[in-house]
Amino acid sequence: MFRVSLILVELVVSIDRHFRIFDTIIFAEILMKSISLCNPSRSLGFLTPAMSFLLMAFLGLPLFAAEKPNILFIFADDQCYETIGALGHTDIDTPNLDKLANQGTVFTHTYNMGGWHGAICVASRTMINTGRFLWRARELDSDLSQEVKEERMWSQLMHTAGYETFFTGKWHVNADTGAIFDHVSNVRPGMPGPIFYPEAYGRPIEGQPDPWSPTDPKYEGFWAGGEHWSEVVANNAENFMEVSSRSDKPFFMYLAFNAPHDPRQAPQEYLDRYPLDRIEVPENFAAEYPYMAGTGAAEIRDEVLAPFPRTEYAVKVHRREYYALITHMDDQIGRILDALEKSGKADNTYIFFTADHGLAVGHHGFIGKQNMYEHSLRPPLMVMGPKIPKGKKIDTPVYLQDVMATSLELASIAQPDYVEFKSLMPLIEGKRDKQYDYIYGAYEPDSQRAFISGDYKMIFYPRIDTYRLYNLDTDPMEMDDLANKSKYKGKMAELKSAFVWFQGRMADPLK
Ligand SMILES: [Ca+2]
Question: What's the pTM?
């Protein structure tokens, strides 16, 4: 009896190791031993590992689970979709991100659903780590302890599936990283601090000295601690790659840059690459946004970084610093990709690059992310890996949090019921050409809504009962508002009706 119990314990241990090939063979042998114990007259002790392997194949157990791919998730902060050089929207140097775009598949229309308060980062990151849509993520935000206890967080799902999980960088989620990752390096806050310097706001004014310096370490921020925070992310990633190269477990690395979130501080050599005459002002630049008062964002921290009314000069200076910080981050991503090559694991690794949402930096009279325009909702998204076509572009609208569901599929994890986002693999493999019926966006419970159906996008400001309507296909810069044109009366009625129905599906608190 004791021996039978021991065998059962061995069985459980073996199962708990997630059927890696070697364990599978052991598992088969243990199974055979159990059979022979139950039927001593028909001993199968002669069974070789090779025969066990064949038996397991016959039983249909996952023999090749040991081939589980590594997942490298690189997450930027406040990066607009337009800032990848290879995609041709703007003149910016991103050779390493270009490599991901050229050697992988690009999702050109990737959305974030917005946020429930000014820190859109919190909403976006809570969604990707819990798998819930916006308002259900908000329900969890105040207390994620039950999620953690029930091991429902993204990294916990990966850990349970046999992954060695690693975190470094910006977190900004209401859960302890130490409780849900196997390895943690630096955990950074929502923005590089510790102090908000007044010199960084309401600047620059043309013809006057600029009080702020993006390279002066006295302003701390990315310079706090003596080494630029983006470089620290790459250092940590290199160290973990080295450790994981000696492990036979697959890894899940969650590398989260604070870049290019403000304060937009980069080394001088990166600023030097962007003289002001290299910077173009966005085509939809506006000195003032006509409905700013109704957005709920007029006095938000991001918007007061530049003076009102906006000037082309101020927008160019902010873009210069934004691009410099992105190019500097791109160099650190190059170091991470080199370390992956060196680890010997590159061939079996999927790389995801995205950001938590976009950023305006001068589009439409906005500087920040608390609005429903494409520049502020949409980050870049590139996927590269063994089964990913090279140089493919997919313009089907998706959510950036679909990365979480995709990683679960790649790791052979059955998608839990509570995960509302969808894997990108059916789109990548051409098995599906639509991901969602509608794309939804919101800012605060009652400030702004976006609703995209086909080519049309409706924006709604409930506080001032104002709508805007754009055709994203013919007017991707959202410059021609169709909401009050008589020709679009029917379209507006159709969208409003569908939106009201969809609010119920989204548990939208706006009545
Ligand atoms: Ca952010």
Answer: 0.88
